[in-house]
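Supplementary Text 2. Reproducibility record for the structural model of the 358-residue chain.

All settings were left at their defaults, and a single model was retained for analysis rather than an ensemble. We include the record here because the model underlies the residue-level annotations in Supplementary Table 4.
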Amino acid sequence: MEGRVVLHSDLNNCYASIECMLHPELRGKFIAVCGSTEDRHGIVLAKSISAKKYGIVTGEPVVNALKKCPSLEIVPPEHDYYSEQSHKLMELLKSFTPDIEQVSVDECYMDYTGIRNKFSNEIEAAYTIKNKVKEQFGFTVNVGISDVKVLAKMASDFEKPDKVHTLYKEEIEEKMWKLPVEDLFMAGKSSVNVLHKLGIFTIGQLAKSPVTILDAHLKSHGRVLWEYANGIDESVVNTKREDLKGVGNSTTLPKDLDNIVEINRILLRLSEKVSGRLREGKQKAKTVAVEIKYNDFTKCSKQITVDIATDSGTEIYNISKNLFKGLWSGRPVRLLGVRTANLIEEDEPEQLTFMDID
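Retained model, structure tokens:
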């Protein structure tokens, strides 16, 4: 295909796949990677494909997951090892092309343009990459191919594992519009609930809806979803690595939220994104902060500085959850943010200090 082509590589069931590589005896079993496994009050960080069939979802309590699947094998996260494997995976992918944008510990975008002359076409390139990952690491990736980033991401989420899929703009009506709207990238539970109330149940229905209606009910996020449903995405593969003075992620909720379970799930997702960026940048954080914006647009934040710097998603999530608990007034929340500061290099020796709380 002429013009811009983007590949999106996504490791299938990241943490669970790496655990099976580290512990071969787990292969074929129902497994979930969870925090706080000793007291069974932790949450599911990842699950195997077989466990997913029982309806186990990321972010739910371990005790709930065990009710769904009593034979579930609970394993603790090993973030240092995940980070090591992620680094090795990205180094392998960079051997194909240096034009890579890593967006999490297990996924990245690759610009095919610069390596076009090395392969007969982008599909051959994707299969070569996929097969090399499997050969070298023993785990599998899906590779999505498109002319825009969001569709490459969507394509990599099609049938798994160990697959290559295309989703060019001219293919979206056939391949994407028939899918349920909750399968669209960035369509969270709250947004989906609003869309369902509007009678929108498929991505195709969303794509054909008047954007003014979506603006009225979901604000700017509604327009973003409408653009994605129509294959509109002008962003490019960003290969520039940021100088990490601080790392954070926030999200404006499409619907005001006062449900602590849903809020914790969002804090988990934000914490995992922050920790992935820290590990990608080979840095750890000693300060973690939570930011809240209420539905009346008032803001507040709270932070804590810990003795030992961390890049662990589980640790950042547990800190963020406790900070939120001490900060939240109970009013509906419009925006949530998790940020880190006071960064050090991952191998920098540390001098222990007393805990300091703002």
